[in-house]
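Look at one such:
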Amino acid sequence: MKILKAFWNRLKRPSQAALGIVLFMGFIGGLMFWGAFNTGMEATNTEEFCSGCHQPIVMEIQETIHYSNRSGVRAICSDCHVPHDWTDKIVRKVQASKELLFYFVGTIDTPEKFQARREHLAQREWARLKANDSLECRNCHQFEYMDFSEQGARSARQHSTALANGDKTCVDCHKGIAHKLPDMQGVQGW
């Protein structure tokens, strides 16, 4: 009976080595999960990933200044559609997972179906950008650093007014800057 009690007491109190091994394995497992998670996050931020479902849209940007310009700075899909801050990025990725679902269930899996829903998708993206004060635009473009003297008269007037009033955001005036606008006939305000 003493042997059983001693054995039971030993099982009730794990050794320090066992506890250290469990903690070490948990730490390594956490690192592996974090690395795989971040690798997946970055893999879904590539132009190749986006063009898997949005090929016609990705092709459109090649005709804009965001793709080819005098400075050689090129924006890709995630620069304009995914926030750079980690917490905002996670929220956006969760929201975008719905788009993957719609693609896989066949709602927007062909160019024709995508075009039929393009206005709805654009309106939703514009509302998102309006709600976050065009956060993704402001990762590169900031009023505080604009040289209004280098802009055209109309642009300088609009930008300085928007800066002073704070009531407008980039997407209010720059819809269609990187993509062709959907058919907006019958849409209020156009």
